[in-house]
Amino acid sequence: MRAYCIAFVVACVHDACALPRRTAALSPSDHLHEPESALSLAAAGHSASARASDYWPCKNGNLNHTGATTSVAPSNLASPPSWRWISDYPGDVVRATPLVDASSNIYLATVNSGRVLKFDANGHELWRYSTVGRPFNNSCAAADPLDNDCADPIISVPALMGGHLFLVTKRGSVRSLDMMDGTERWRTETADRTNGGGCYAVAAGFSTVIVATKGGGHAATGAYSLHAFEPEHGTKLWQFDLPDEDQGAVYNVMISLLASPSGNAFAVFCSAVGKVYKLDLLTGEAIWSVEGPTPGSFGTGGAVVGPDDTIYATSNLAAGNGTVSAYALEDGALRWRVDLGADMPAQVAPSVGRLAGPTSPLSVVVSAGTNPSPLGGAEPAKTLALDAATGALVWQYDMPLWHGAAAGDGFPEQHGCAPDSSANNAIGGDGVTYVPHEDGRVYAIRDADGDGVISQGEVSSWGFGMTFQGSPAIAPGLLAVSPCDGLAAWHAHH
């Protein structure tokens, strides 16, 4: 394992899916797999009669987007997956996270072909939904990107709630599908487009569906507007536009949804300049916002809310160093910040979970490293675990050194996945961290002996020859991953 120098600077500061009919009561259709914080337990208490909870209903697995679950998935990735599906549309791209329902069925959105597909746990296709027309390929785009004969690409990660799947297309069409058979229930237009430069996650919880769009008048990459809808008919509830003076869009945004014991609900997210926002979910108005470590810097990381009512956000300094910051959910007060060092930008959101059993301390796991480039040289990267209370290093694993374009994205044929160094990681109930990497391999990492050193026997991996944008999904006995050309799963009961 090759070692790299890291500078840890920890600043210790004092220590902590719409509402139905637009009220403060929570809907029985809301997710139950919230992390066990005071805020999320309030939601679970109102949802005792809910349908069986979906195992991985959105990117990073739950409304707080912690990327962690109590479910245990296969972790010996030296063995091949149980099955693999590769898109049958030439040039298609998959950037979405697989979603897993309460029956371990898997849902996957594709970009260029504009499709959503449902598979059972054994890889049998159950249905497919298409936005319209032929694939959105280069010839289609050259003719007219908005040609109605072209499929409308799905560049977002959909979300599941209450037996329905919610998505937004590149043209800003928000749609609801029946999870049982894939029929379209409703669609509504945002009068705006999503930006093709990112992979945004739909948020669905507390009877609210939120999508991100480009925002009027903005030509730059990223999204500047959030739109909220009620889930039964698609009626628009509110719109939040990022202030121009903030000088930053949201990019690959994940919007965490949570409720207080009093029943008030909130949305939390992070912009591309590291600014963290907390919104009132009822009105869309900002409750507070806090600047990132370097206003004006750029990063594609994000924010998640831990079960300790702390917001953990990744962003970058002006020099390119990645950072992980911990903020109090109540008022945004900084609790600690870690500098990941030179050549280690933090371009994906962290995960928050327990790495040594259900009673072990919380850890924040983040992957960092230089993004792949066709003309680039060596691209060092690492995955590391930090103590959630202090930011102190728990363990670090240096990813195998990679050079040039990401696996499957090389010249002369460019697949067009354009990933970060690693995709968002996921943490299983046994403490295994799953990391999809630019080299086309998925890694399973666990410090089994707890010595703070990841030895060779504590890592396994499987290579697909294709890189990743989507993060893994976990259900009992099931690990689903989405290489940029399709879907694969390890199924313990296959």
Architecture overview:
With 494 residues, the chain is mainly beta. The protein has a single domain, classed as 7 Propeller (Methylamine Dehydrogenase, Chain H), CATH 2.130.10. It is 3% helix and 33% strand. The protein has two helices and 34 strands. The strands form nine sheets. A four-stranded antiparallel β-sheet has the order 1-34-33-32, with no helix packed on it. Strand 6 and strand 7 form a beta hairpin. The longest helix is centred in the N-terminal third of the chain and has 8 residues.
**CATH level 3 topology:** Methylamine Dehydrogenase, Chain H
Distance between the terminal alpha carbons, to the nearest Å? Answer: 34 Å
Structural class: mainly beta
**CATH H-level superfamily title:** YVTN repeat-like/Quinoprotein amine dehydrogenase
Mean pLDDT: 83
Give unreliable regions as ranges: 1-51, 141-146
Helix content: under 10%
Q: Which term fits the overall shape?
A: globular
Keywords:
single chain, 494 residues, mainly beta, Methylamine Dehydrogenase, Chain H, 4-stranded antiparallel β-sheet, 2 helices, 3% helix, 33% strand, globular, PQQ_b-propeller_rpt, WD40/YVTN_repeat-like_dom_sf, Pyrrolo-quinoline quinone repeat domain-containing protein
Summarize the structure in short.
By secondary structure, this protein is mostly beta strands. It has two helices and 34 strands.
